[in-house]
Each structure stands twice: as C-alpha cells, then as structure tokens.
Design goal:
Keywords: DNA-binding, Transcription, Transcription regulation. This is AraC family transcriptional regulator. Pfam families: HTH_18. The chain is 79% helix and 0% strand. It is mostly helical. The chain folds into 2 domains: 46 residues; 65 residues, Homeodomain-like (Arc Repressor Mutant, subunit A, Orthogonal Bundle). The longest helix is centred in the N-terminal third of the chain and has 45 residues.
Length: 148
Amino acid sequence: MKKLFLEARFLDLFIEQQALLRQVQRRAAGSRDRDTLHAIREFLDTHYAEPPSLLELARLFGTNDFKLKKGFRELFGTTVFGYVAERRLSVAQQLLLLTDEPVQQVAEAVGFVNPAHFATAFRRRFGQAPSQLRRGPKSQVQELAACS
C-alpha cells in the first residue's frame, strides 16, 4: 500500500510540474504575442493609407490571422481595420486643420478612394463635415498645434 501511495503521489507531483511548465510557456508566448501586436500597431500607424490585408499582415509578422484578429481586439479594444479607420480620420482631421489642401486631396492622402465615403465617415466620427471643420474657429487649429 505504501508503495502505491508513493507512486500515486509521485504522479500527482509530476502532473503538477507539467501544468506549471505549460503555464510558463503560455506566459512567454503571450509576451511574444503582445510584442508582435504592438509591432503590428506601429506598422499600421505608418501604413494606414494602404494597409495590407489581414492575411498579408499576419504573414508579414509571422502569426496567423485568427491570432491577429483576436489578440488585437483583446489588447487594443478594437479591430485591426477599426484602428486603421480611426487613424485615417485622426490624420485627416489634423491635415484639414493645419494645411490648405483641398478636402479631396486630404481624403486621398489618408487612403479614401471615394470623397463621399470620406465625408460620411468624417461626419460620423467628428460630428461635422470636413469642409465645416475648415470654416470653424481658428482656435481649434491653435489648440491642435499646442497639443503637437
């Protein structure tokens, strides 16, 4: 009986050790995944006008599209293309406030092919049309310049 008890206890300890080892491996993998997702976000910050597809993005960073979609949403609270859309609109807002480029050129610069889609998305995000932002008070430009 004593021998069976010791053998069972040994197996319990071995199983516990394996479980702890798997936990450590998952944490290390999770850390690598977070680093990869941060690198992807940085890449999108500079390539927002013409982002690659999810599959191309995943391959570019050595992950799969499922991990990319799931991890990005968990870490940043938005989808990959939701992030890209927000980035495009934020840059467009800055360009409209700080430059005299026509609205259509601003739309093209941030990756919108159709100016009407740009105007709709801009209005939905900021509550006013891009042209209205230009006609707004110049204090908005000064506030934005102070933040930069």
